[in-house]
Amino acid sequence: PGAYKEDRCPGWDLKVFMKRTSFLVLSISDCVGALAMFPSSYYIQWWLANGLTNFRLGVLSFILGLVLAACTIAWFFVLSHALKHGVTPLIAAATLIAPPSLLRTVAQAEVSTHTFWGTSYSAMVICVLSLFFEGIRSSALWTVKIRVLNSRWRLLSYATIFITLQGLLGAASPFLCEFIARKSGASFISRNQKELADASASA
Hints:
globular; 10 helices; mainly alpha
């Protein structure tokens, strides 16, 4: 029967690809952010250089992970309620929240010293808080993208293109960031908290 004969996934529908300007701008910003992915995921190495032992890091990560999970669940409730009143709050969250990796970089740079003077737990809390902001920003971005496209098939095809590109740029991020860091006299290949913070700031 014809109904089953035509039962297949729609095409890529690339003819309207360039017409979704908002989706393109948001996706391109994610791709550019992927180039700086390496420093933003290097914070655990900085925690170890900040004097935390593996055991203490594990305990603190477990406790802060539970707090982070509770905050994330609360955000999902806020998100579901906000969708009932339009996408304006989501657009604000997607565009006005600065990349949380900048907050982590500033916190690490402020407390880092070449000579170890003690563990900074406040910097660790700020880093965890930045992860929560990162979850807010990421979920808001994807919700706005879904609303902009208004088609799950276009979302599937277009997001596949950009996620693939984002992954390729993310794979190049360690090499690019290390190159930029060395140009500034720093390096990620270190166990000194100050050197790691300087490398993150330069990259």
